Amino acid sequence: MRRAFSVAVYARRGGAGGKVLVIHHHRLKTWLPIGGEIEPGETPLEAAVRELGEESGLRGRFSPLSGACDGVPPGFLGYEEHMAGDKGLHMNFVFVADVPEVGDGSEVAPNHEFAEYRWVDRAQLGELVSPRNVREFGFLALDAVCEPAG
Q: Is residue 149 part of a domain?
């Protein structure tokens, strides 16, 4: 069976309890977080950092999450897998990254994969027409507490 390894990144503003970015994916015709496939030689975290910048133009801070086990990559929320047509088994590493509200790297830059995007809070996320796991991981991203810096 074919396998595809990918990342999803919930860009977040306002920290825990704030808002997360979702895009309306042209080809898949549904709301999703930023994401894409892991390139050969990349770690999931490296792919998440790259995809966030390439797919949205945003720069984010991937911070260690409170309560995470030793060795877990910063910002790692979890993992899910599902069948994805001719790609076979789609294995997806999910991250949260805090992004600035203003300044360099704070503006979303739509691309060939999406034109429409939204910053959604918990209530708006719950009403989103999307796969259930998109909403479930979005709730985790909104609830994630980062370890204090230093």
A: no
User: 55-100 pLDDT, tens per residue?
Assistant: 999 999 999 999 999 999 999 999 999 887 777 888 999 999 999 9
The C-alpha atoms of residue 146 and residue 133 are separated, in whole angstroms, by 22
Number of domains composing the chain = 1
**Cα–Cα distance, 70 to 92 (Å, whole number):** 21
- d(CA 142, CA 56) in angstroms, rounded, equals 19
Rounded Cα gap, residues 76 and 72, in angstroms: 7
Instruction: List, in order, residues 6 or more apart from 116 with CB less than 8 Å away.
Output: 23, 24, 110
| Spatial separation of the C-alpha atoms in residues 91 and 21, rounded to whole Å | 21
Range of the domain at 82: 3-143
Decide if 148 is inside a domain.
no
Residue 128: which pLDDT band, with cuts at 50, 70 and 90?
very high
**Residue 99 in domain:** yes
Whole-model pTM: value is 0.93
User: Which CATH number belongs to the domain containing residue 15 in this structure?
Assistant: 3.90.79.10
